[in-house]
Design brief:
Keywords: ATP-binding, Kinase, Membrane, Nucleotide-binding, Phosphoprotein, Transferase, Transmembrane, Transmembrane helix, Two-component regulatory system. Its EC number is 2.7.13.3. It is a single chain. The chain has 4 domains: 146 residues, no CATH class; 110 residues, Beta-Lactamase; 73 residues, Single alpha-helices involved in coiled-coils or other helix-helix interfaces, CATH 1.20.5; 121 residues, Heat Shock Protein 90, CATH 3.30.565.10. It is 65% helix and 12% strand. The strands form 2 sheets. It has a 5-stranded mixed sheet, with helices on one face. The chain has a 4-stranded antiparallel sheet with strand order 2-1-4-3.
């Protein structure tokens, strides 16, 4: 025993001063010392004929640890191996010592009263009837105190689900995830970082953050949405394969909660944007009507009244006033047409979506650039989908005219297999440089599609040119 404990104490002392790769090598020696101590302790507590076999195993593991520590210290995660050996070895030794203490106490109490042989039988009976059930419950309590709830996966998952149900808001849900994982795995610190829709990051932590942490990705449907932070060092921080599977199940719930929180934040932001856009549009219409159309019509009324008063005595002046009033009315009609066009392009009602896109294609592009518009399955489209497809196609055609230097442009409007409207604008121009940042026009394309729950992508095919492809869901709106 002294031959094992003395080198173990020396290794532990040297480990405190080691750093870097030397510290990793010393951890291999520490693990070998812990295994040797457990083997020798077992030999002392249970002397048997297998002592030579136990010592052979200890010597073999020591040689293996020294070899790996010197040649391949990173071949195995020694921190995880050392932590698992300390935890499970310590628990096993504690249970064995408790068993021996119970048997010894019963033998001492009953030996003087009923004799050695009868005392042994009674001790075995009492252990089987009373102590074994208590020992199982005590074992569960000790493991729960040391390792948390990881031994009961159902309890961990259901407890986290209950916490999430009681939480309101994205930040409270993340705090519930961090607290649930910390209590389930008995780790001193758990951090949850989630990327928000606006480019920021939501961070929730439980406990005091240590100097070094390990990061585990949180993914939702194959898309990374955040990170889970756990301590890198410490006995409870080391996970076995079963713990990793349980943590993966918990992380999936965390990912769902994070995604739900992110979607809730996006929904709230979208509502605020919709309200803001509506009020801005109302203010613009009010300003245009009050400052533009209102004074123009008021001036027309005054000129008509003046012309009526001058009609009998000065007919020429009255006629001039009426001509000026006519010009003012024509200008007011132009303002009305502009306001109506801003609300919804009239060409959509007059020509339909395909005709309106064909008409729009003739404006920005040079006459030498042929534009082909293909359309099918455009009946009974919701008004919002029509406007979005028209705006996206118009912006894509304008970009092709300004930047592409194309000789041919093709526009295709059709329903896909799911019934959504697919609008594609393809040109054979110079394309877009990979390092070029998206401008306002490209961002507006994506925003218009996202407003309807669709998507818009801009890509450069291998054959050259640029392709703008928007997919707009048709469900949920009334026919145009």
């Amino acid at each position: 025993m002294v031959g094992v404990l003395l080198p173990l104490a020396v290794v532990t002392h040297r480990l405190r001063a080691a750093a870097g790769e030397d510290r990793r090598r010393m951890r291999w020696l520490l693990w070998a010392g812990v295994v040797d101590a457990l083997v020798v302790l077992g030999a002392v507590l249970f002397p048997s004929t297998t002592l030579s076999l136990d010592l052979s195993v200890a010597v073999g593991l020591t040689g293996l640890a020294v070899t790996l520590g010197l040649l391949r210290p990173r071949a195995v995660d020694i921190d995880r191996l050392l932590g698992g050996t300390l935890v499970y070895g310590g628990l096993a030794v504690g249970v064995v010592l408790l068993d021996l203490a119970v048997l010894a106490a019963l033998g001492a109490l009953l030996g003087t009263a009923v004799g050695e042989r009868d005392a042994t039988l009674v001790s075995v009976l009492l252990v089987a009837v009373v102590y074994v059930p208590l020992r199982a419950a005590l074992w569960r309590l000790v493991r729960r105190w040391v390792l948390g709830e990881r031994e009961d996966p159902y309890r961990v998952v259901s407890g986290l689900a209950e916490r999430l149900e009681r939480s309101d808001g994205a930040e409270e849900q993340l705090m519930a995830v961090a607290a649930g994982i910390a209590e389930a795995f008995r780790v001193p610190y758990v951090g949850v970082e989630v990327d928000s829709a606006d480019g920021g990051r939501l961070v929730a932590g439980h406990g005091t953050r240590p100097g070094t942490v390990q990061s585990l990705p949180i993914a939702y449907r194959g898309e990374g949405v955040g990170r889970l932070l756990l301590p890198r060092s410490g006995v409870r921080a080391h996970l076995v394969t079963r713990d990793e599977r349980l943590l993966a199940d918990v992380v999936r719930q965390a990912a769902a909660a994070a995604r739900a929180g992110s979607l809730a934040a996006q929904l709230q932001a979208s509502r605020e944007q919709l309200v803001t856009a509506r009020e801005e549009e109302r203010r613009r219409l009010r300003r245009d009507l009050h400052d533009g159309l209102g004074p123009s019509l008021g001036a027309v009324v005054l000129r008509i009244d003046t012309a009526r008063n001058l009609a009998a005595s000065r007919p020429d002046d009255a006629d001039a006033l009426l001509r000026q009033a006519r010009d003012d009315v024509a200008a007011a009609l132009a303002d009305v047409r502009r306001l109506v066009h801003d609300l919804r392009p009239p060409a959509l009602d007059d020509l339909g979506l395909a005709g309106a896109v064909r008409q729009q294609a003739e404006r920005p592009l040079a006459p030498a650039v042929p534009v082909t518009v293909e359309a099918e399955g455009l009946a009974d489209l919701p008004a919002a989908v029509e406007v979005a497809a028209y705006r996206i196609a118009s912006e894509a055609l304008a970009n092709a005219a300004r930047h592409a230097a194309a000789t041919r442009v093709r526009v295709r409007l059709a329903r896909d297999a799911g019934g959504a409207l697919e609008a594609t604008v393809t040109d054979d121009g110079v394309g877009i440089a990979p390092d070029r940042a998206a401008g306002v026009g490209l961002v507006s394309l994506r925003e218009r599609a996202a407003e309807l729950g669709g998507r818009c992508t801009v890509s450069c095919p291998a054959g050259g040119g640029t392709q703008v492809r928007a997919v707009l869901p048709v469900e949920g709106g009334g026919p145009a």
